[in-house]
Design a protein that fits this description.
69 residues; mainly alpha; 65% helix
Length: 69
């Protein structure tokens, strides 16, 4: 994915809705790990930002543990 495509994709996301849906899926037992951490764009975005996990989680308004899972 190019930088331009990544930026376009990030702008189109509704992160709060995705997080809420993720919590609902977990509570309903509809969750399983299918990917490695490296396959998530959020991991690449944090690494590119140069922020620590703590700093990035604070920016996103979630706990560090949520970010790690």
């Amino acid at each position: 994915m190019s930088e331009k495509e990544l930026a376009r994709w990030e702008k189109s996301r509704h992160l709060a809705q995705e997080l809420i849906q993720g919590v609902r899926d977990i509570k309903a037992g509809r969750i399983e790990r299918r990917y490695t951490a490296d396959s998530y764009p959020i991991v690449r975005a944090r690494e590119k930002s140069g922020l620590t996990q703590v700093q990035f989680s604070q920016l996103m308004g979630v706990s560090v543990r949520t970010l790690q899972d």
